[in-house]
What does this fold into?
Amino acid sequence: MEYSLLHRINQPLEASMLSFDALVQGRVTYEGAQGPPSRIPLGWCTAQAHEGFVSLSWTEGGEERAAVLSVQQFEDHLEAGSIVIVEAPPLRPRRAPISRSSTD
It folds into this structure.
């Protein structure tokens, strides 16, 4: 990628709303409202980038769960391989293919 996700997330809000599928495949914890840090279970989740933070949501025991990570925490998990982006929108528009005319 030409720009890192961290660069993209730090853009103004209207330019950085990204939602993508991700796979938690390592130890990822988050701070709950009270008590010790909680662990996000291994498996699929949906990540949504906002200005200054990333929210992760998943289903656990039939219930929807969610956690918020700082952009830096999320980037650290990406670099460590504990979170892998599976499907993300392109960070820049795709160019139309160049059509070559047979009359060149």
Residues 5-87 form a domain with the SH3 type barrels. fold (CATH 2.30.30).
